Amino acid sequence: MKNRFIKGSLAALVATLATNAFAATEVTVYTAFEADILAKYKNAFEKTNPDIQIKWVRDSTGIMTAKLLAEKNNPQAEVVWGLAGSSMALLKEEGILKPYTPNGLDKLRVELNDPQSEQAWYGNDAFFNAVCFNEAVAKQLDLPKPTSWEDLTNPVYKGQIAMPNPASSGTGYMQVSAWLQNMGEDKGWAYMKDLHQNIAHYTHSGSKPCVEAGMGEVAIGISMASRGAKLKTQGAPLDVITPAGIGWESEAVGIVNPSDAAKRVVDWSISKEANELYIEMYPVVGHKDVEATIANFPNVQQKMAKMDFARMGNERSDVLRTWSDKFDGKSEAK
């Protein structure tokens, strides 16, 4: 009986030690990636790194940026992965992101990365805005096809345009910033005032305006070009239009708590394997050796606005305060 007890105790101890030895380390990752792609990225990472589990905390860019700033003195995130470059620049300036040189850095496109010394963030992909135009609704309502930003101020579109609230959506903010940077402050704000007359509502998601246009809830959604291409490929009656001066930005990765597990998440996030997943949705990714053609994605190269991402980060609070004072009355309820 005694021997059986000892053997049983030893077996239990060995089992406990084995469980502890192989228990995965959990890494908290803050993200603004679209919710429908998170499982794919998590599964691919954990297949390669079975001793680490990702715990996603996901929200739109504006909300996630505000959360990280609010937690500055008591950070809860270990990695930030899939957040706008302008937000990452601000987080670095605030000391939230820590400088880190990931393995494989030499394989990345430098134009998507932190341009400053002691780099702290690295581009996963570049994403672009577009105008999602529902051709079926347009035919029904006899609406002309817009080709420029100025066209969208035509009263014929009154109540037929949705766009993201820039205070809660990075997609919205990068277009507001593009207008201000490329039109100039006075003309940019005047343009948004005219556009506001035609806005049905401002959403809290960057992709939602295009989804709404695809479903015919509005005729026009100022939104993510990648979402427009995907919906068109799925059969939505959309024309994905790129007026000159479209907003664009990189989505990037950076480290908050430089633990070994967090570093491995960052290293994998810039790997060729990860970039081969990004390219399924985004036309431009960080890895030099990964390229693909996305069905129905518009030609953005000649239409891209000139973007100063450091300026975007530094001006963010002032721009959003002004925008909210002027236009927030048409925002959807959260």
Automatic annotation (TrEMBL):
GO MF annotation: an example: thiamine pyrophosphate binding
Matching CDD domains: PBP2_Fbp_like_1 (cd13544)
Residue ranges that the Swiss-Prot or TrEMBL entry lists as coiled coil: none
GO biological process: thiamine transport
Keyword Signal: yes
Keywords assigned by UniProt, alphabetized: Signal
Signal peptide: 1-23
A single GO cellular-component term on record: outer membrane-bounded periplasmic space
Protein name stated in the entry: Putative 2-aminoethylphosphonate ABC transporter substrate-binding protein
Species for this entry: Vibrio inusitatus NBRC 102082
